[in-house]
Amino acid sequence: MDVLADALSAAGVRGTVAIRIDGGDDWGVTWARNADAVLYAMATGTAWLTPDLPGGGGPIELLPGDVVLLPTGAAHSIADAAHRTPLACDLTLAEESAHSGAPVRLGSGEPRTHLLGASYRHDRAVSLRVFDLLPPVVHIRGGRANSGLDDTVRMLARETGDPQIATTVVLDRLIDVILVQLLRHWLRTHPDLTRGCWLGALADPLVTDAMTRMHQRPDRPWTTDTLARDLAVSRSTLTRRFQDVTGQTPGAYLTQWRMDLAARRLRDSDDSVETIARSVGYASVHAFNRAFRRLRAQPPARFRHTIRHPTPSTED
């Protein structure tokens, strides 16, 4: 089992093509914050991205093959020049583009810049987060990552340059692949920045193995002692290594993982609370209720009702 793939699946991270842009001369557009994360992949030409972030930050030049991720979905502008004053986005036009797969033509003259914008969202029922652990901007230059990411961006460029049957399906799949490849590169080149969160486990084989066992069998009555025996290390070694790289004890991480799995089943199935409790390792419904309420501030039955019948104040 792959810890990162498992976490992305549990967190319900899904990408969709938001817009394709063909830019000529004198173009620019501003976007409000409206997603968990936003990604741009440059096919051809150049553009300037200016994110609206606390503390500011200047324009970022995007060149062919570049990929840039705004993990918080921050408001931003993108234009053909660094200091152009862009227009507010026509959301209707953007939605029509995403639905039809046709590019949005911006500026005058023949398009010289072709790029794709995508958005990603988390499952709101899950507390595990991927994008919250990244810096405000992740920018990878074309040719500076690895052949996998570069090859995928080239495939994207070919698909956008010569749309065919089911191009929108192909693009949606490619942006999921690009996200994984971008995360691989960032984790490989910034190992120190992952310390203190669950992503840190990916840099430590022992902690990765511990997480893998918990993910594979969340119903097993794990304790730190039984987990350490499975891994053939001492309890103190496992606890120290786990806390050092993730900022949590093995028990705290396991509880969070179990509650995320339970939350999705409470929302998506009609299984009884007792059945769900057993599936995530609780023989006692009372103990499960107590653990769930401690992390989610409400008992499982109320959570199920709230998430299935949200009011305007509870919708995100």
Automatic annotation (TrEMBL):
PANTHER family: HTH-TYPE TRANSCRIPTIONAL ACTIVATOR RHAS, HTH-TYPE TRANSCRIPTIONAL ACTIVATOR RHAS-RELATED. Keywords: DNA-binding, Transcription, Transcription regulation. One of its GO terms (molecular function) is DNA-binding transcription factor activity. SUPFAM superfamilies: Homeodomain-like. Residues 208-306 form the HTH araC/xylS-type domain. It holds the Pfam family Cupin_6. This is AraC family transcriptional regulator. The keyword Amino-acid biosynthesis does not apply. Gene3D superfamilies: Homeodomain-like.
